[in-house]
Amino acid sequence: MTGGIDAVFRIAAVCLFDSAGALLVVRKRGTAAFMLPGGKIERGETPRAAACREVREEIGCRLSPRTLRRLGVFDAPAANEAGRAIHAHVFDGRGIDAAFARPDAEIASQHWLRLDRAPDVFLAPLLRDHVIPALVSTAPASKPTGQ
């Protein structure tokens, strides 16, 4: 701790997809980077509970902690606070219908990101360097045609 402020933010975030397999990313007001829905874990809160609370607050989707699968725990530079870092518990919400997600609270906009294409928006380091590679490596293999 430096001056009573943690240099590392503990956060929880969720990967949500539409029916075509595009990943939902959001951008907070006053920022440039798109990131996963999620946020800081409050004292006494589990990462799964924090992820569900943050998703409800930010995009209006109600999730059950039981429906989330752990994708991984990653460390990355904070997207919007120079000199800070995040320690992120990231959950995979495949199978959860996120089609009705709507920006709320501090969210300025949302975007559906295709993982099979180069990003068309500016991405937060956590998403770019850790989450997308993890999602791509765990994606179900497509079946060969004609078999």
Automatic annotation (TrEMBL):
Domain Nudix hydrolase: 7-136
CDD domains with a match to the protein in the record: NUDIX_Hydrolase
Cofactor(s) listed: Mg(2+)
Keyword terms, alphabetized: Hydrolase, Membrane, Transmembrane, Transmembrane helix
One protein family per Pfam: NUDIX
UniProt superkingdom: Bacteria
InterPro entries reported in the protein's UniProt record: Nudix_hydrolase, NUDIX_hydrolase-like_dom_sf, NUDIX_hydrolase_CS, NUDIX_hydrolase_dom
Methyltransferase recorded as keyword: no
Transmembrane annotation, as ranges: 7-26
SUPFAM superfamilies listed in its UniProt record: Nudix
GO molecular function: hydrolase activity
Keyword match Kinase: no
Classification via PANTHER family: 8-OXO-DGTP DIPHOSPHATASE-RELATED (PTHR43046:SF2), GDP-MANNOSE MANNOSYL HYDROLASE (PTHR43046)
Sequence similarity: Belongs to the Nudix hydrolase family.
The name this protein goes by in its record: NUDIX hydrolase
Organism of this sequence: Salinisphaera orenii MK-B5
